Amino acid sequence: MPYTNPTMVISDNEFPPVQGGGSLLLAWQVRNRKVLVIGGGNVAAGRILNLLNADAKVTVITPSIGLHPEVHHRILKRQVTHIDRNFRPSDLEDPDITMVLTAIDDPQTSTQIYTLCKQKRIPVNVADVPPECDFYFGSVHRDGPLQVMVSTNGNGPKLANIVRKQIAETLPTNLGEAIVKVGSLRKKLRKVASASSEGPKRMEWMTRVCETWSLEELCDMDEDDMENLLSHYAENKVMTYKELRGIPPPSEEREVFEEAFDGSFGWF
Fold first, then answer.
1. Least C-beta-crowded within 10 Å: which of 38, 176, 207, 232?
2. Which keywords are on file for this protein (predicted)?
3. Which CATH number characterizes residue 78's domain?
4. Active site residue 128
């Protein structure tokens, strides 16, 4: 039976509405995991780069004839393992395979691969065939540790690319650097407050740092700033950038100015 509480009155606008038909967007960790890419064309080149950026162990199955120049480059640089032939069902026997991506101009073989993957419970993506995809690739903006993905849930990949570019144009150019500094501060904080009971306080304190400091200030943060910030963690205080650098607020700056110049020199 559904839970009901006769004393509780809930408005329809109190909680976000459910919007079905979307995808569960995740940052899938494939570092050091084996991934098969079947195909060697333009689409495969993009898939391979995405996987290498995520530190996956990529195996490319495709004949050497007709390779895209980028795929050929990855093979020559030994950034991927290359199997120089067409796909065989036995290629899926390896239990270490984490996912399979197909990017070939052969609908029948692509469907065969999809069916075999489903039987073996291996997540699979068949390029340009949404019904045969367990997941989609979005259009990604990358700036250091920052990754922003736009997905149209298989409806319009090109449109996702256009939207992604427009979003990227609105972001500060130094955003990735600011995130690196925040990550460094978090690691130092974990050493200062390593107890598991400190978890909620650590999260709340870091949130306040991100809300108090501007992106430009976070980019300018140095080791001394981090140590000074952390010295006030025990008292649950977040010092501002200007406080740490000894920069007086605008009101104090004006008071100093007025005290130094009383108008006798024609300043006012």
1. 207
2. NAD, Oxidoreductase, Porphyrin biosynthesis
3. 3.40.50.720
4. yes
**Which helix (H) or strand (E) covers residue 126, if one does?**
strand 124-126
Assigned domain for 81 exists: yes
pLDDT at 232: 95
Last residue of a domain, one of 119, 137, 155: 137
Give the Cα separation of 230 and 171 in Å (integer): 28
- Cα(149)–Cα(237) distance, integer angstroms: 34
Confidence class for position 154, pLDDT limits 50, 70, 90: confident
pLDDT in tens, 7-33: 666 677 788 889 998 899 889 999 999
Q: 96 lies in which domain range?
A: 34-137
pTM of the model: 0.76
Write down the catalytic residue from 106, 128, 143, 220.
128
Q: C-alpha angle with apex 38: 72 to 23, nearest 5 degrees? A: 115
With beta carbons less than 8 A apart as the criterion, state whether 146 and 179 touch.
yes
CATH code of the domain containing 150: 3.30.160
